[in-house]
Please model this.
Amino acid sequence: MGVRGGDGGEEQDAEFGTVASWTADAVAALGDEYAIVAGCRGSGDPALLDWLARSCALSPSVGMVDVGAGVGGASAWAAEKYGVRPVLVEPMEDACRAERRIFGRTAICASGDRLPFGDRVFDVAWCVGVLCTVHDKFALLREIRRVLRPGGSLGMLVLVAEPGLHSELPRGNEFPDLDELRDLLAQTGFDVRELIEAAGGTEPAEWPRQAQRVDELLAKLHGDDPRWQEAEEQSGKLAHLLETRQLTRRLVHAVKA
Ligand SMILES: C[S@@+](CC[C@H](N)C(=O)[O-])C[C@H]1O[C@@H](n2cnc3c(N)ncnc32)[C@H](O)[C@@H]1O
Model:
């Protein structure tokens, strides 16, 4: 079975809501060249996103939905590199507003387990770094499957619990183990085409430098705010779990069976 951190309502509000608004302020102060890096603070780096993009055969003619889009960095990256025009879905209103301010697009404010679309309308769905933040993973994946056309692609980045995981978990997260992830995908009607461990640290040199500038500005402006401290505490726990390989990052390409 997967592993769960305690109730995370307020921490997730801080991390995915308030910090999203602050991130939009930081991009306004630093400049548009910081937008994608700031927007991907949660999970993305370009090598991982490129793996997902190539696996899902992104192109300008592909209809794509990004479920749990955050402030939209991953989608903006895909739009810039592959010419796709993703539809963004994100449940946190602050994140939707931040997405609009940073990238000028409109995210649909909705939960991934109740998508406001008809059946079989998208060729590709992304769900990047979202699964571990969701309790009912089955409902989320079933709903994503519903909106995909037959043979459509699901691209995910998933944080997976490794055997021997023992450190304290970030609150509100429930990490599936590898068997649970494979079972979930099979039970929700996906065929796994590839499931690999994501290599880290392959981003271009300016990426971590820009991410650090965003972090430094946020810390300078909001370092005394308990919501910033909460969000930092959660991401510190996550970083430790990844460094010690109690969690690993997995990339998934699956197809609607
Ligand atoms: C770690 S962030 C990743 C954001 C973005 N995909 C990225 O890669 O930068 C997880 C996101 O999942 C969203 N989320 C949480 N529960 C969700 C749900 N039930 N449906 C869709 N998204 C959800 C959160 O609000 C948050 O924006």
